[in-house]
Amino acid sequence: MLDLKGMQFGKLTVIAKTDKRYKRGIVWLCECKCGNKEYYVPSDFLLNHGVTHCNLCKWKDNGGNTKVFIKNTNIGIIKSNKIFSHNTSGVRGVYLHKKTNKWIAYINFKRKRYNLGSHKNKEDAVKARKEAEKKFYGNFLKWYNIEFKNKND
């Protein structure tokens, strides 16, 4: 197996081998020149598919229109206030469960879905969602804004 540690692929520098695997290949921890210090890339993507920069660079180069995952978190989604077209409550992460006639609240963070409970009224579900946003997104966005200050603008 080829050791990629220290090798340069465009803006990416391979930092270390991880225990993660992608299609039986090694996933490497890389650092990008844009400041993204935690970007994971499979060997095959570095060697055969021409990956030379992180998603943050791709996002910046494409005017912020592509998904950017930092620490398994989609930055664009959590920073956005956009309501998806299939949403009927007008609040992200809140919907009416038709069979039980209760309002369900949930939040997604780091590629996991957290159930915030079922509620008799919409206001309680919205309150649960807003509290969860502060809990999950608040400190993460503070860290992100400090770590990537002026690098994604």
From TrEMBL:
Listed PROSITE patterns: AP2_ERF
InterPro entries from the UniProt entry: AP2/ERF_dom, AP2/ERF_dom_sf, DNA-bd_dom_sf
UniProt entry keywords in alphabetical sequence: DNA-binding, Transcription, Transcription regulation
Gene3D superfamilies per UniProt: AP2/ERF domain
Annotated ranges, domain AP2/ERF: 90-147
SUPFAM superfamilies: DNA-binding domain
Presence of the UniProt keyword Transcription regulation in the record: yes
Protein name (record): AP2/ERF domain-containing protein
Presence of keyword Zinc: no
